[in-house]
Amino acid sequence: MPYFLYTEIDGFFSFLNPIVKLLESLGHYGLAIYTLFEVLLIIPPIEVLYYPLIISNPDTWYLYLINITLFNIIASAIGYYVGSKIGYPILRYFTNEKTLDKAKALFDKWGVLAVGLGAFTPVPYTIVVFLGGISKMNFKKFLLSGFIGRFIRYTLGGYIVVFILHEYESDTFNQYIMIASILGMLLFVLYYIFQGIYNIYKRRSA
Q1: How far is residue 153 from each of residues 23, 98, 158, 182, 187, measured CA to CA in Å?
Q2: How far, in Å, CA of 177 to CA of 199, rounded?
Q3: Distance between CA atoms of 82 and 88, rounded to whole angstroms?
Q4: Alpha-carbon distance 151 to 44, whole Å?
Q5: How far apart are CA 116 and CA 69, in angstroms?
Q6: pLDDT tens digits for range 107-119
Q7: 3-state secondary structure string, 61-98?
Q8: Is residue 139's pLDDT more than 90?
Q9: Fewer CB within a 10 Å sphere, N or C end of the chain?
Q10: Phi and psi (nearest 5°) for 41?
Q11: For residue 9, what pLDDT is reported?
Q12: Alpha-carbon distance 198 to 204, whole Å?
């Protein structure tokens, strides 16, 4: 069957077609680049690109898994270094100091477990990576725990998408996955923009 990335959206959501075509054209190179930025910047999670690409090539989905896992390790190493140098002032833009201090205290207490859970859960991974650098935790343990958390997350997510496609093949289903991904991405970006503006306003008003 022709998967959604090869078709056009009709009706209300037709404005998404240019974005869909851009995502379709990125392929492995785009996935690698987005993975690097997703770890180093607080942007929508890689699933907004990972899942649609799996939908377009379900038989070779494991290649996308290898791609994002490898580039997550590279980006995590870079992010750890950046976090150790300038991570604290960057994170202050997205949250207040009290919340950041609490997060750092939890991070210091739980160590690699906090990294692994942060890598697996929907928490923006940039925060986890930067806190790893800020807290000066063991670099090898940091990379290993992050790798395990992310690998499990991406493996489970990819497998579930492929399973659903094989069991419930539907053009409509594929359309709604892409629509949900793109709208989720836009909402995610808007949330952190307004959160950052609000934090700056509170500091200036204090």
Answers
A1: 21, 30, 8, 20, 22
A2: 33
A3: 10
A4: 18
A5: 14
A6: 777 888 888 888 8
A7: HHHHHHHHHHHHHHHHHHHHHHHHHHHHHHHHCCCCHH
A8: yes
A9: C
A10: -130, 155
A11: 47
A12: 10
